[in-house]
Amino acid sequence: MNVAILGGGGRRGRWFARYFHQRGERVTIYDRNLEAASRTAAELDVQFVPQLASALQNADVALVSVPIQETGDLVRAASRGVRGGVLLTEISSVKGPHFSLLRQLARQRFRILSMHPLFGPGASELHGQPIAVVPVRNQSLELQQARELFPEAKCVAVARALHDRTMAYIVLLPYLLNAAFAATLLNGHPEVLRDLATPRFARQLRLAEEVLEDDPTLYLDIGRETPNGLLVVGQLTGLLRRLARADVQSSRLLSDIRRRFARSEFAKRA
Length: 270
Known about the structure:
The protein starts with a strand and ends with a helix. About 55% of the residues lie in helices and about 15% in strands. The protein is built from 13 helices and eight strands. The longest helix is centred in the middle third of the chain and has 26 residues. β5, α5 and β6 form a beta-alpha-beta unit. By secondary structure, the chain is an alpha/beta fold.
């Protein structure tokens, strides 16, 4: 199978190029950042081409891996160059800005697959990793296509509107929490904090270090493009203000949160 990674110079594009190469597929990388794409291709021993048309020439799968705001333009450009039968795939974190384009192309008989891999480019393996499949035209067919490309992953179908709202909680919220945790620690005494760290604090510190290695522009994009990004931020900041009072009402609020969470689906599945 010939796989073209469109945006292969980025961290996520490089991950997928490596994944398909290790599976024995023939991989071609295209990216507007010629230097990054050329370097990645040399590291992985895959083909690099500087023109989009050349990348698509023999492709069976064309995977678009670029920032959210660039996804629609690259999908549209790729649709002009792919031959019949090519599976045109995009993996953006938010679908709203370009989903109408995907549906339009699907109505024109293009094979479209919209996915969101919910793991970072630092993942060492695919086994059990979640991938959201956002149905464009035919849910069962698109789920099957995703599972054929990523048989070890956990592919889950989710409607576009629900997917985009959920990303504010799954992706944006943990990043903000860990960024706030790290920023607050900067006002403390790092050497003492590490020496006196409880196991829970040490785990949280390692998590914050891991999260802050990611490119912050992705999270800013998600906050801007999700329909409820600002709402989630407002809920978080409002809650922190109420808890900061450290009074009787704060104690009642914490007790109420603990009780409601214990009864929720989160606790039931833990």
